[in-house]
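Example complex used in Figure S2.
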Amino acid sequence: MAITSKKVFIVDDDESVCRALKTLLMTFNFEVITFNSAKSFFDAVSIDEPGSLVLDIHMPGLDGWQMQKQILESGSRRPIIFISAEKSDNAADRALKVGAVGFLQKPFDGQSLVDLINSTTEKITVEI
Amino acid sequence: MVSHSLILLIAQQKKLQLKFNSQVAMKKIKRTIPKSKKTLQALKKRPVASSVVKTNTLKDPLLDKIPHSTLEEIVRQQTDELKVRKGQLRQGADREKLGADREKIAEEQLYIRTKAMESTFDGIFIIDAKKPDFRIIYANLAFYELTGYSKSEVIGKNYFLLYEASENLFFIDEIKHSLLQGNPFQGEMIHHKKNGEKFWSLLRITLIRDKNGNITHYVGNKTDTTLMKQRELEIVQQREELLHVTRVGMLAEFVSSLAHEISQPLTAILSYAQAAARMFSGKEPQLQEILQYIINDDQRASEVIRRLRLLLKKSTPTLEPLNINVLIKDTITLIMTHITVKNKVLKYELDNNLPLIQGDRIQLQQVVLNLISNSLEAMDSIDSRDLLIRSSLKDASTILIEVKDSGSGISPENMGHLFTHFFTSKPNGLGMGLPISRSIIEAHGGHLDAKNNSDCGATFYFTLPLCLKEHHEQ
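Predicted assembly (602 residues):
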């Protein structure tokens, strides 16, 4: 249970951000898989495959909000953490409102991301 | 008897000819003509034989020598001549009548012209140019009202003394110089009334010359252009305000875009450094120190961006009820001179029954101005002139604004990048106008897009909801 719940998916159109976050999260013993678009994620990951999602908001094609909505509509309860380089005053509120775990403004401290991910895995572990 | 009367008639006619120019003569001739006609008719009726007999009874020896046919001919000629003279006389009388009519018309025209001069809003004055002291010999009512001076303070006085209170000494020299050179003058200046009140005055002075070409009078026309100036000034201020807002908007958009682009690598650098610090945790103290410096400087750069973002925070729309047609017309006023200079023709098709919308006036004006400016630039290198602005109800809850040009249209490769930051097809463009416009329209809950027209040119259009729903900033 603990192993599967430590899986993290990252969806960000910026290749460099994906690679850096993967490197960082791997030092926290997460299993990390990255995608550069919503489509490539949906093509590769099934609804019931466990794992948290670190999701960039501004992306070509489906953006983060639309992707999260689609995941929610598919019946999945995958924990989602929004990240964005765009300055937005109400993104954090909106993220919580739509049922996400949280929002981080880029650039963020790695520990804050890990804490958010861990809060979700703990939550899931408790629920299970 | 008949022949005798003929002779008398001839003599009378000759006598009459001497008095021809008088009306009295005319009346006499008028009386005589019917008589001579009767005589002629009598002569025609009488048989030739009896005429010979009767002729013999006449005592005048002169008449005996003149054949009757000749006499008859003479009378006919004289009568014809008289008729011609009568005609001429009538013409003369007509001419006199015409002269009188003309005089009447001239009087009327003079009256109308005087009245016109007196009733116009322009101050008109006439200066005697034959004397050196620019003496005013006439001024209309408006001149007194405009300057605040009374008739006694104006008539017979030097025109330029009315300028005493003003500071336009430079203008006075210029006007005098121009007039003395024999040139008309035209200029706009701030003028002072007698009470010191300032007004903008458009002054035009023309010259009147006599037959020999000598200047006899100067005619001045003074128009109060204060209201026009104020309006011009207002338009300039509004345009400046809009340009300022646009510039600030562009800078904000630029900073926002720059911040976004820099934040991505900063995120990566921070994550890499933190990952490395964790990897070498407890080992390599020098490396740890370096990694910490990287992390610190990354965070410092992030802080700079955060402050910049705060400084140039995009202004939130100030919503008020707006009539979009009024807003369009107001915006066009600001750019009308530009349109005219570019020799383009602007047409409206505005639906007058549109409901009010909720919006930020300045921001929406910014969008309309941006779309019109783009359209004008699209038609720059092309002969086409037509620019159309249309407002309509798209559906029950949305209004549609279209700006249609007849330029070169948008190429397929450019179509996809129109709203991308820093994308521009113009040599001096920043690539900020359309992305800003789109973000403004989206903040209003609408949508901005472009399409090529079926014939020529392109149409940029945007929608605005009639009731602004809560819009989530993304």
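Chain A touches chain B at residues 14, 16-17, 19-21, 23-24, 26-28, 57-58, 63, 65, 83, 85-91, 94, 106-111 (CB under 8 Å). Chain A has one domain: 2-127.
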